[in-house]
Amino acid sequence: MNARMPALYIGHGAPPLLDDPTWSGQLAAWAADLPRPKAILIVSAHWESAPVSLTASGAPLVYDFGGFDPKYYRMTYATPDATALAQRIAGLMPPSEPVHQHASRGLDHGAWVPLKIMYPAGDVPVLQMSLPTHDPVRLMKLGERLRPLRDEGVLIIGSGFLTHGLPYLTSWRLDAEAPGWSSDFDAWAADALAHGDVDELANYRANAPGMPYAHPTVEHYTPLFVTLGAATDPEEPGIQVIDGFWLGLSKRSLQVA
């Protein structure tokens, strides 16, 4: 039998992450410490679509960003065919949660930027799944349905950013000091994650300090619940592998068993 793969929640940064030796080094070291996946299923903040949808194997990357160096728009990340994984995912979903196989959509930057660092050879099949809702309960159930994939060598990743108040940043330096709303939200989430307090994490709108500045929109936070749902025991504290800030935003990232 295969050992069960962990599930991850990662901060994915923006294309300049590829040139940041500190954070990219942390992601690369993390990937090197993981069992080698047979395939990767990643849910990115940058694809909000219902019903649940999957990318097309071999489709061009999505360059869903603007104002960066032209080199980032020429980057590629070709990976092996993932049709079998798509079929397996569709088979795990109940009739109430049908899966749409997108004919032409490729990986967006919330997927290909971190994966290009973690698995630079591009030799692992990758599928991206859309984020169909922001309801923590529904996303936990989605993660739970995906959990059997972990016993089949599939690495499940929720890709977002633990704080993402871009409109409220006053500095665009990578090493900028974290604003209070970012550091307060990060400390609150770190404590809840350390205690496996899923209810507290799910009640972030009411309970988390720094809201709504930390997440004026919540798509970078809610992939966390897919990861927690895919955990063997969502209330068992995971390992907070990466912490610290980038542009003043929390890059705290989690690994669950």
UniProtKB/TrEMBL annotation:
<dbReference type="InterPro" id="IPR014436">
    <property type="entry name" value="Extradiol_dOase_DODA"/>
</dbReference>
<keyword id="KW-0223">Dioxygenase</keyword>
<dbReference type="GO" id="GO:0051213">
    <property type="term" value="F:dioxygenase activity"/>
</dbReference>
<keyword id="KW-0560">Oxidoreductase</keyword>
<dbReference type="Pfam" id="PF02900">
    <property type="entry name" value="LigB"/>
</dbReference>
<feature type="domain" description="Extradiol ring-cleavage dioxygenase class III enzyme subunit B">
    <location>
        <begin position="26"/>
        <end position="233"/>
    </location>
</feature>
<keyword id="KW-0862">Zinc</keyword>
<dbReference type="InterPro" id="IPR004183">
    <property type="entry name" value="Xdiol_dOase_suB"/>
</dbReference>
<keyword id="KW-0479">Metal-binding</keyword>
<protein>
    <submittedName>
        <fullName>Class III extradiol ring-cleavage dioxygenase</fullName>
    </submittedName>
</protein>
<comment type="similarity">
    <text>Belongs to the DODA-type extradiol aromatic ring-opening dioxygenase family.</text>
</comment>
